[in-house]
TrEMBL record:
Top EC category: transferase
Record-stated family: Belongs to the purine/pyrimidine phosphoribosyltransferase family.
Pathway: Purine metabolism; AMP biosynthesis via salvage pathway; AMP from adenine: step 1/1
Annotated gene: apt
Annotated protein name in UniProt: Adenine phosphoribosyltransferase
E.C. number: 2.4.2.7
């Protein structure tokens, strides 16, 4: 059961039909991000199960950056961006993974000290491919993923089955 503050925060997430293509229901979190109280509420809910267990928050491009930055500030932890290929000047590691139609690659700088405890943060868990690749990328950099937190899980897409244990604030 969600608290009143979380229920209010969830009500700020818009569903936009047929974006970016017909049949897709896009979850727009920008109204939630624009509301300071709602943003603080969801960030606290995302990191609460992991408090004291991580040194660094790794955020997955692009909306995951926004949540990860706020989570890192709230927890007093460092922040490592995980970017799409070609966006970093000195990528130290990369992982290529399968999409429904093709492949994608994510990269990161070598800013994770060996053995760092990493909380992986993203906005949505859909099919899970990006989060599995992010786990592999953190390991390649020498970090240890101690938890994965997402704002919303799209349960019908089955991502949890391939990612494993994921803490979600909202489900759709």
């Amino acid at each position: 059961m969600l608290s009143e503050a979380l229920t209010r925060a969830e009500s700020l997430i818009r569903t936009i039909p047929d974006y970016p293509e017909p049949g897709v229901l896009f979850r727009d979190i920008t109204p939630l991000l624009a509301d300071a109280r709602a943003l603080r509420t969801v960030i606290h809910a995302m990191i609460a199960p992991f408090e004291g267990s991580f040194d660094v928050v790794a955020g997955v491009e692009a909306r995951g950056f926004l949540l990860a930055g706020a989570a890192a500030m709230e927890a007093g932890a460092g922040l490592v961006p995980i970017r799409k290929a070609g966006k970093l000047p000195l990528p130290a590691a990369s992982v290529t993974y399968a999409l429904e139609y093709g492949t994608a690659t994510i990269e990161a700088h070598d800013d994770v000290a060996g053995g760092s405890r990493v909380l992986l943060v993203d906005d949505v868990l859909a099919t899970g491919g990006t989060l599995v690749a992010a786990h592999q990328l953190v390991a390649e950099l020498g970090g240890v993923v101690v938890g994965t937190a997402v704002l919303m899980e799209l349960t019908a897409l089955g991502g949890r089955e391939i990612v494993g244990d994921v803490h979600t604030v909202f489900t759709a």
